[in-house]
Amino acid sequence: MARIRDVAREAGVSVGTVSMVLNHADYGSPAIRQKVESAVEKLQYVPSEMARNLSLKRTMTVGIIVPTVSHPFFAELVGDLEEALYHLGYKTMLCCTRQKENAEHVFLEMLQRQNMDGIIMGAHSLDTAIYQGVKQPIIAFDRYLSPDIPIVHTNHVLGGEMAAQAFLQHDCHHIVEISGSQMVKTPAGEYHQAFNKVMQAHGVRTDVVALPWNSFGFKESMELAERIFDEFPDVDGILGSDVSVSSCLQLAVRRGIKVPEQLKLVAYDGTYITQNGILKLTAVRQPIAELAEIAAKKIVSLINGSQDDSPWVLPPTVLKGETC
Amino acid sequence: MARIRDVAREAGVSVGTVSMVLNHADYGSPAIRQKVESAVEKLQYVPSEMARNLSLKRTMTVGIIVPTVSHPFFAELVGDLEEALYHLGYKTMLCCTRQKENAEHVFLEMLQRQNMDGIIMGAHSLDTAIYQGVKQPIIAFDRYLSPDIPIVHTNHVLGGEMAAQAFLQHDCHHIVEISGSQMVKTPAGEYHQAFNKVMQAHGVRTDVVALPWNSFGFKESMELAERIFDEFPDVDGILGSDVSVSSCLQLAVRRGIKVPEQLKLVAYDGTYITQNGILKLTAVRQPIAELAEIAAKKIVSLINGSQDDSPWVLPPTVLKGETC
DNA sequence: GTGAAAGCGCTAACAC
DNA sequence: GTGTTAGCGCTTTCAC
Prior knowledge:
Two copies of one chain form a homodimer.
Chain A: H1 4-11, H2 15-23, H3 30-43, H4 49-56, E1 61-66, H5 72-87, E2 91-96, H6 103-112, E3 118-121, E4 138-141, E5 151-154, H7 156-168, E6 174-179, H8 190-201, E7 205-210, H9 218-231, E8 237-241, H10 242-254, E9 264-269, E10 282-285, H11 288-303, E11 313-314, E12 317-319
Parallel strand pairs in A: 1-2, 1-3, 3-4, 4-5, 5-11, 6-7, 6-8, 8-9, 9-10
Antiparallel strand pairs in A: 10-12
Helix pairs in contact in A: 1-2, 1-3, 5-11, 7-8, 9-10
Chain A binds a DNA duplex through residues 3-5, 8, 13-17, 19-20, 23, 27-29, 32, 47-48, 50-57.
């Protein structure tokens, strides 16, 4: 591999000149620039990013921490984040915490080792204490980590109310809510509160069942669906994430429960899996792409100390489907 | 940030000693090790990965190039690759090519700039010429890139035959196959050939319709589904990727076509979207997790010049569903 | 077993 | 405007 000094020798100039010509479009006389460029061409010179990183003390890389990427919500999120970061000139380090011993610590240490310039944290954390002392830039995506770590998220109060309105249009009497683990407090968890408030005001009975921690699989959500139908035979409405509500739909049909006649379903998230089935699920959709773009912009401005005026909270929308 | 020489001073030893103690478990006397460790603790020292990278000329990072991650197949693939690489001690750089000008060149250049030690290429490439001269380690995932770039993939001949067997059990007369773009030749494309061969031998009519290049969206596949039902009213079997067959199922139900009575459906890939709908799709499942693990092992052995004896080709399996 | 010093390849401040 | 050179922080060879 040719190094910068080989280029300098070939071009008959100094190393510093080559570096300046390569990194600053307005440096040097046309003649010099030409000489450098043809030397680069001739030697097939490609600068070493490791050396630049060390010299400039930055990597132009942002880490995205999520539980998993094989889940429609996080798949969309990660895809949108990667795209936004790319257009801002940043590379994406993918960090999945699920099914790994204590990956969260490992990834956080990567940040401290300056492997990446900042992180966007979208994974549930049981041990938020480890974020306290961290000096490097962090943006949380829909997660409470520490008082001084800013959060980008959907307006879940609005989301809960939207879900409530959907059910209220159809005269339901007993709604079961599927929540994530109660072990972690997340902004997303708050839509249940808003939902319950509206439901109580209307005298509708609600029950909450919770998924195990860090559970995003189809097996777990199908098991939960069975539990719901067994424990609450009179349930006539279910609210939960896309995946859990999909499982409920599948099981309802299997058990001969008519949707939406006997059972109304509202999915919270509104990823593509709510749209590609035989019945389109009615859903409260989180503005994932927009949130991702904001999170990307904010982590970048945190990294280079600039200002970003994008809002921190965005409203969800309703996808009218066939299940409520 | 404390540097290694601060630790050395604090511990009263030389920089070299600190480095050796930190990187080699069997170096130094217990007394020295103890001194170094408490200095590290006291100063909260974290080594700079950029400096190590430059010194060791490696990044312990592998790039994964895919068209997108918000598609169930690639979501699973990327998730499994990240996990496998993590357990091999490598970090994952996520590189998505879709909806970006010429991202493929950009990512390939990152490889040459030694931003990553190797790449696993899972994106369609229109310009395979750019891979010719590349010296760095590359493993292709189900893609033909260049004669000297090794490929990990499913045994698609077997896959095509399995799909054929599924239809043959049900006496179909006219099967439409949905293929990816004809512009790129991929191993996956070959399942159609194997499928056609069997079908011809049994005198079953087949037609092929193709998706546009790099099209993985639900809109495109729904449009294609409409075209199929319009152009081929007598179709009684459809074979295609999970997403495209899902769209066909949705549209069939909407048009009052009974599945599986009047129309048999077989999905090729077998990702979770074939399993979470009201009707489970009969599918030929690619062994994504196993292939991912193999690809990860192989790129790592390519990077450090070791040997890997895993097979290059793995057989698919049939997921018996309710649509064929 | 331990310390000094020469890189790794690039950037940019500072002389000329 | 151009060249020289001192870092960036770490690893490791080579004397002691």
